[in-house]
Protein: Aldehyde dehydrogenase
Amino acid sequence: MGADGADEILVGGVWRRGSGAEFASRSPLDGTVIARLHGADAADVDEAVRAGAAAAADPAWRDLPPHERARYLVRIADGIAGAAERLAALQTRDTGKSINETRALVASAQATFRYFAAALETMEDGLTPPRGPYLTMSVHEPIGVVGAITPWNSPIASDAQKIAPALAAGNAVVLKPAEWTPLVALALGRVIEEAGLPAGLLSVLPGPGGVTGDAIVRHPGVGKVSFTGGTATGRAIGAVAAEKIMPVSLELGGKSPTIVFPDADLERTIAGLLFGVFSSSGQSCVAGSRLFVHSAVYRRVVDELVARAGALRVGPGADPATQVAPLVTHAHRDRVAGMVERARGEGARVLCGGRAPEGAAFAAGAYYLPTVLEGLPNGSATCQEEIFGPVLAVLPFEDEDDLIAQANDSVYGLACGIWTRDYRRAWRVARRIDAGTVWINTYKQFSISTPFGGMKASGIGREKGREGILAYARQKSVYWDLAEAPLPWAS
Ligand code: NAD
Structure:
């Protein structure tokens, strides 16, 4: 719903009802409908892309110097700051996430716009060493219209991570938020409009992935797609991109290993393990969901972990004391429960959780208890597939080489955590693990100035960092003649 409660989406600078089918966004607390929306259909996508292309080509935007483009990003950051509490509360309502987490996500979105404004002011095109009588240079130009497709698990932060660098690079953006959580993206659209961004540069098009998302990816006017979501979807988008010969960046799933060596500081380790897998109720691409513990400390670590997992505060997202909020939808909760049932079938021992919490307070919500499983080999489906819920599989190990082989025996390569006091071992293992991000004696920490992305089936491309702007630019080389005489061949 728009700010006024109307069923409106942002199509090429105009707030109006989408032409696609109606869908509902439901509360994870009790399944009630929070908003009904008409999604964008292919005609809406076409309208948004055409308006985006026109706005990006308009000299008012095309010829704006970078430092003036940066001012829009700063104004957007200020707008997010001004609306922070409202945006966080809206996101908690729509996703079920704890209010502490959604406040952090809103703060991250704000910081992302500020960071890319600053980065944009310092971007430089380069002169290259000339190897003849000419000036040679390498310059970056906007792509035109960028498609940004985001998942439901941290909406406003992932939306900002695509919109900010894409606008910084001088593009227009067509954003498609996930159908389960469209509201905060629409609210962000309002904030960006109020910041004065020229109309048409941003469209926000909720709708089903197979309709709205697919139309964005296939549209000939879209010159790049930046996608965050599941690996199967990313693979399908990558196939269309290959047909179009279109650049694509894919931030996909993970099954990230965390590794505990016997010399680890166990108090810090347990705190990091719990946060790494159970915060966001496990609905995190980087969740440390495969835990390898050295056999010398295995029982101690697992017993302590289980005791503390059982004491985590499960409750509604709006309660600031809540650590484990409901999952995003009842259907997703049921899917997670089904994967734990499959783990039981594979022979897993359920050390804690393995069910929804009992009691009237939890009856209507999409809750699931923090769950620790042991007794499964790394090759089991439970240890290989992303569950995307509060479920941890623990495995003992003895030998470092065997550990690395097991940790890397996964189609994914998103993140890894290493817990040890031995700095040489930390370095050695960090360099041998297939992961886009490695945390040493910490976990799930992020910085907008540090690139993020996956290896193997966890994705292609990197977001964040100063280079993040260049991911939304086309590179061009220019040779500029300085010779006194014409080219000799035809003379
Ligand atoms: P998803 O792949 O189902 O959906 C993601 C987005 O893609 C949604 O907006 C969806 O509508 C859209 N989509 C679906 N089918 C499409 C199609 N054919 N064409 C175009 N768009 C389409 O993922 P999800 O369930 O929303 O999110 C969870 C997944 O996202 C997990 O696998 C998680 O690991 C991953 N994720 C990755 C990162 C990362 O940075 N690596 C971050 C967050 C989430």
Summary: The chain has two domains: 3-252+458-477, 257-440. Residues 211 and 444 are 33 Å apart (CA to CA).
